[in-house]
Amino acid sequence: MGLQIESRLFIGLLEFNIDDKEHYIKKVSLFDEFTKEKFYDKLTLYYIETKKFKKKEEELSSQLDYWLYVLNNLPHLTDIPEKLENNEVMQEFFDVAEFLKLSKDEEFAYQQDLKSKLDYVNVLRYAKETAEEKGFHKGVKKGREEGEKKAKIEIGKNLLRANMDIDLIIKSTNLTKEEIEKIKKDL
Questions:
Q1: Across residues 123-143, what is the average pLDDT?
Q2: Which of 69, 104, 139 is the C-terminal boundary of a domain?
Q3: Do the Cβ atoms of 26 and 18 come closer than 8 Å?
Q4: Is the pTM of this model over 0.85?
Q5: Based on the domain organization, do 150 and 173 belong to the same domain?
């Protein structure tokens, strides 16, 4: 029983032409010289002769076209070609290329600016988390206080219904005389 391996692709970008044929993509399989049989069906080799790729910007229609166009024209490009502006992958590539062409001083300034922005974001995140935590604890405390107040009012109502003396209700519930009088009116 042979080793089970997933299929693999090898892609080679060539800056020279293998032959005079017009087609720029070569799909190659390995064959055993002696048996003339396919040597290994899990490995496919693709060679792309970039110099044969001649499409103009308006003719580009696939991701491969975009990459080959950019690779062939990179030394002459100052901005991302209009046709590629809405392509996320190409936009990311050009963003990285912009960074890589920075001088050491510009790169340092960029890194410092990025660090400042990230620090600012982290400070805001920490402030938000801290505020949320304080707000939560404050809300719990306020809720507890409101609950205790409602419980005292209910106890006060029950004691008033039982015709208890107001001074005794004040001592039992810590409610003020005014609060007890208001409860008495609402009954």
A1: 87
A2: 104
A3: yes
A4: no
A5: yes
